[in-house]
Amino acid sequence: MKKSMTTKEKLAALRQLMREQGLAAYIIPGNDPHASEYMAAHWFEMQWISGFNGETGTVVVTMDQALLWTDSRYYLQAGIELKESTIELMRESDLDCPSITDWLCGQMENGTCQNGKYTVGVNPEMFSVNTFKAWKNQLSEAGIGMKSVDLIKPLWTEGRPAIPQDKLYPYSEDYAGESVQSKLARIREMVNGKCPNGKWALLVSALDEIAWLFNIRGNDVEFNPVVISYAVLEADRCTLFVDEAKLDSAGRNYLEFNDITIQPYEAVFDYIRGLRGTIFYDGARVNEAVFEAVSPEAKAQHLPSPIIAEKAKKNAVELEGERIAMRRDAAALTRFFRWLEEEAFTNKDQRPITECDIMDKLHSFRALQENFVEESFGTIAGYRGNGAIVHYAATPDKCAEVKPEGMLLLDSGGQYLDGTTDITRTVWLGGDIPAQAKRDYTYVLKGHIALATVRFPRGTRGNQLDALAKQYMWAAGITYGHGTGHGVGHFLGCHEAPQNVRTDNNPTPLELGHIISDEPGIYRTGEWGIRTENLITVIPAPKTEVATTDDEWYAFETLTLCFYDTSLIDFSLMTPAEIAWINAYHQRVYDEVSPLLSADDAAYLAKKCAKL
Amino acid sequence: MKKSMTTKEKLAALRQLMREQGLAAYIIPGNDPHASEYMAAHWFEMQWISGFNGETGTVVVTMDQALLWTDSRYYLQAGIELKESTIELMRESDLDCPSITDWLCGQMENGTCQNGKYTVGVNPEMFSVNTFKAWKNQLSEAGIGMKSVDLIKPLWTEGRPAIPQDKLYPYSEDYAGESVQSKLARIREMVNGKCPNGKWALLVSALDEIAWLFNIRGNDVEFNPVVISYAVLEADRCTLFVDEAKLDSAGRNYLEFNDITIQPYEAVFDYIRGLRGTIFYDGARVNEAVFEAVSPEAKAQHLPSPIIAEKAKKNAVELEGERIAMRRDAAALTRFFRWLEEEAFTNKDQRPITECDIMDKLHSFRALQENFVEESFGTIAGYRGNGAIVHYAATPDKCAEVKPEGMLLLDSGGQYLDGTTDITRTVWLGGDIPAQAKRDYTYVLKGHIALATVRFPRGTRGNQLDALAKQYMWAAGITYGHGTGHGVGHFLGCHEAPQNVRTDNNPTPLELGHIISDEPGIYRTGEWGIRTENLITVIPAPKTEVATTDDEWYAFETLTLCFYDTSLIDFSLMTPAEIAWINAYHQRVYDEVSPLLSADDAAYLAKKCAKL
What we know:
The structure is a homodimer. By secondary structure, chain A is of the alpha+beta class. In chain A, about 50% of the residues are buried.
């Protein structure tokens, strides 16, 4: 048996296959077939070919060049990991960095082509239908062709991790709040409306959609409790394409009881080839390989996924689960913050505390909570200037020591069987607080409260509310580049479409039961990062007596239950209404969380929630 | 000679022509060929065929039916004016009213077709390229064809008003701030960038674009000082298509001096037929007839009009003109409000005052001002409940008596040679003010101030700021349906694309020199309407010392100069910062306007601007 190949050997082998296929370039994106945010190691093709271990990147290989596009978070890491690889780093956050398609068009114009033809190979499983089409259109204008072919599979035979084989498990209706049959009936009715008289099928390749639709969960990827699978819904049947190995008798019985046909994971393509009538797919979510499997005798038609839209509107049981999970999460956070304040820096052995210790400690307190499954994303513990790096991730070999002074930004969350949490608190660990730090913290807090307390008519979109969270820092000439709020799933993805609050145009109105985060921030390079984040959900607001129109009114309920660091507030900037809101919130935090705490922890919480 | 035809006779004659052309339906929209908001009477085809004299409506004629679609503003008027016409009123503001295309598709499905074919005739001059295409696509799905043909021209021979023959006049660079040559060079450079190596032409059919590009003005329609014409810009020439009759020697000399070729108005179609290369048109602005004239040997290509984008960004001279015009407009308003307060209800002959008297009086004070040309739109004087009707227009035979009590909403504006104004003030004429009236007025005022005072990073779109103007009334469960701000031209249209502040997604970011209105409102049916409107312009805001990013910052400068009715303010709802803003604004109003006033008027203004 051959030893594991070097990057140079892998590139040489790939180029041999490219030559056989007549390809001038081959593209390996850091994606999986399910448009997942977190991927199973089986699909780390970009990492395998390049030796670069960042989460985001795309490798482009031509006959004489190899390049990796990645963003500024990974410039340093990529520089080190690519050193021996011959792969050139393309810094895609830089303004002068060409896009991959522009770069390819440039290659074509430079005459770098094979027999007058320039064809780019891609694995269609790794592209959404929409992205594939957009690339194809742009490249074809430059005379470049695109060919669907998987060249990594024949190369990566040694040591490739299998597709995860963890068991899927039924997700109790006690948590989901709706039966599979009810969900299937609702979605079928919606699709029928698009195709009243005809035979149809709906292709589903996003894992959170499948998990929601069938009330199943799994352990196949980090942070998201999903099951690697495909699904096809038809008027008279539904089919789950999943590895046999993932089914124990409970799982199999559950699926069979619900009339969900089981087929092998790889069988999805043949199954789709056999479908006739109208084949609905969401071009933004379904991969190109699935789309290409549709028979020419059927009619493929884009349909924004009705599952995504329905999944986003949490039902009463899901929301009640979220509320209960939030109490447990807050109990863990209270215990953690007490440890940080009273124990961390006075430990017997005087060992220095690092950002990683903080991440581990917080995880350990969450892990003690009932129904805790895993974290909902990698904790961001950013001490001082590290807090200003928006996607900062401390690692054991590269993390800062934390001292009892200065600012700490802590963004973390848990997956509980009854709900998903995501919370950011920024706390001052000791020493004199600079006046600007207080002002920054207060601008963020005022924006956070403005969004949490807005009333708005039905039909309002998140981007209409974004400036409410920014208005106070804008007045001071400060802003931030990330979204103000992302959608959150129910014991599913911590980042969920389609609802959000961002500057970008997003046609989705906020709907009852949507959960979003409320997380404005201010970041001072090298000094501190401040972000304050709660999860909030859209609830009905009664029409007032003085209403002038028939509009239906909505408001937000704050779900997250954790005190703010009031030592960081500049009270001269706060209105009486804002202080009253904090007092009411802190009272609620104490009332709901203290019953879960020891007497000492409850006393600590009472102190943190003291009336201002 | 025949007497003028009745509506029934006109419909019969039209149906005869439809039969000859094989048309199952013919559509007469209330449009002109230039996508004008205000139209010359020559194009009142919808009004001519129907006898309905509202400004907005579309008539659809089939072999056995005739229908008029119009909105709720005109239901009453249309009901009366259509009485003898056999034309059925379609209430398009009602939720259950089908769109014209849906209605036509329904006719087709009902089997109402001619020899198995159903073809709809339209005059392509009256449709934008985009609207025509959208209709064509929808109708073709139902098997309905569309045919471009003008059937009104051969019918409406008796008494049709000519195309206006008023003289065009050069618009001085002292007001425009930029020479024709400079504008032509800038626009040519922008179009060249879209077609670097080829021959091109840019078609222009919107009258405000032509007026801006060539620095010409005219008197062809009410409220907008434009010249009925077409223009074609090419790399090496530009051509204005305009009636000979509109040119005196000054106009002709001006055009010739600037190398603008003159051709007859109707010659535009032949001229376009002769063009080759890439023919750019803005599908939202250019009419379908112009588009259809493009030769198959040329390449028609949509390009968002660079003229619209450049016109919207007022230069320093235009802005200075606006500021000066605002002072004169404010002098007229001050004189008017003093008349309303001190004279209107104490006139010797005790004649009752009506909304129309108020409109006339305001006009008469404006007419005394230097550089005043005409009103910029029809004044809205809405007394009490009439103020709650958003597009209310009093007419001599239908206007309310105004008494020295209750609320008056007054929305008006002027066209001055140096700038366009548009202002709304709501005032209390006497009697006890209900607490809710004060609260409503104050919510509106707070929103108006919030928008006027926001700082925002470059790239921000109007729809991101809309909620700032609504947040206070939203908190009380109140909202309004109209836009918060429309774009305003410079001695051109009082409603100008592309900048605005609305709930709708509009991809246009706010740019330096954009002028928009800031006009939130609250409307209580049968009680009162409250709207407060200033014009504001986007100005650079210096980066603050505490900025965290490299963003360029913008703010608004308030252009309008007129006091608010402070008797309507509920001070318990106001912040100290808001009161300080009003005081500073009132001080500025007094300082800038009082030099234009008589001593008595200045004393009145000082009282209205007294420090709160």
